[in-house]
Design a protein that fits this description.
2 domains; about 250 residues; Nucleotidyltransferase, domain 5; about 25% strand; about 30% helix; six-stranded mixed sheet; single chain; alpha/beta; binds beta-D-glucopyranose; 8 helices
């Protein structure tokens, strides 16, 4: 099946047509900047531009950095608050001239791709995918089945939102060395381990390009591995999440 996958992020909106059976991109991905306002209409227009770039007429799946329940956006940590309770699927359908649209949480999308084609392939245990970028996204899989919208980046750690301390953006903002950041991230993983005892933790997002700089500093019992599809996982998984729109 050929589906346009789009990864909507706080800084960039990128997409490519995906072969959902093989998990491969069918064209080079196209990326535009996320509008500064982060508001629904402005962001949706950029999604439409990505679809236009590919002259896309088929179904579209998009990953979004928020809780998405049946197409409706329910949270807004790193996007404009006016997204809350917006019918994201409806909005994208309208701006793309009526294309069939599926909208899901971005970490859930990346997790779906990793579990099918990447680091979690064939894993039947408890798998936690964490995307470490502007925020921390989470996707929990039990026997390969996703529990959507877990939002574990917002667990409280040291009295504050964990992603404000342990995301890649926090590392950059606080100008932390990898060693210092790893200490904070390890504290976060310890908390995840206490709550869910995952067999496998897959790390994706910006921080993972530097996996070798911090992997040896992590002390959790779970096996921790880098994502294999890297910055394509969000696009591939978003397309896969829309597969049921195709008859
Ligand atoms: C959002 C999540 C998202 C994560 C990664 C968090 O701030 O609440 O929905 O998955 O960032 O983008």
């Amino acid at each position: 099946m050929q589906i346009l996958g789009i990864d909507i992020g706080g800084t960039g909106i990128k997409g490519a047509p995906v072969d959902t059976e093989t998990g491969t991109l069918l064209a080079e991905r196209y990326r535009l900047l996320t509008p500064d306002s982060g508001k629904p209409k402005a962001m949706a227009k950029v999604v439409a531009k990505v679809a236009e770039h590919f002259d896309w007429k088929g179904p579209l799946g998009a990953g979004f950095p928020a809780v998405v329940q049946n197409g409706i956006v329910r949270s807004a940590a790193n996007i404009d608050a006016s997204w809350i309770d917006t019918d994201g699927e409806g909005l994208l359908r309208d701006v793309t001239g009526g294309l069939p649209v599926r909208l899901v949480n971005d970490a859930d999308a990346a997790g779906i791709a990793e579990m099918t084609f990447g680091a979690g392939k064939d894993h039947k245990g408890v798998v936690m995918m964490l995307t470490v970028g502007t925020g921390i996204g989470s996707a929990l899989f039990i026997k390969g089945v996703l529990v959507p919208n877990t939002e574990l980046g917002h667990l409280e750690m040291n009295g504050e939102d964990a992603e404000k301390q342990a995301s890649d953006a926090a590392r950059q903002r606080k100008e932390l060395s990898w060693k210092k950041w790893a200490k904070s991230f390890d504290q976060y993983l310890q908390m995840i381990e206490r709550l869910f005892t995952p067999d496998l933790i897959i790390l994706g997002g910006g921080a993972v390009k530097n996996f070798d700089n911090f992997a040896s500093l992590l002390t959790v019992r779970a096996k921790v591995v880098p994502a294999q599809l890297l910055n394509e996982a969000g696009i591939i998984g978003a397309a896969m999440a829309a597969a049921d729109l195709v008859n």
